[in-house]
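Problem: given the chain below (90 residues), write out its structure.
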Amino acid sequence: MPATLSSPNRDLIAHEVNENQRSIEEICICCGSFQIHTQHPLFHGGICTPCTENFLETFFLYDDDGLQAYCTICCSGKTLLTCDDPTCNR
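Solution.
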C-alpha cells in the first residue's frame, strides 16, 4: 500500500490490528501505509516517511488565534475536532 497524505482508512487499520493481529507499530497511523519509517512521536503506532515529513512541517504551526491548525496525529488540516477547554491550544 503506497503512503498517502490523506485521511487514514480507520477501518483498514482496525482490521489489520484486530483481525490480522498486526502490531499498531507496523502501520502508519496517519495514512495506513505498511512502509514504516519510525514510530509516531506522540502516539503508539508507526509513521511512514511522507507522513513524518508532513508532521515535521506542520506540527508547530498555529492559526492567528493561537490554536493549532492541524491534527495532532496526522497533521492534516481537513476536519478537526477541537477541545472545548478554553485554555487548550490543541
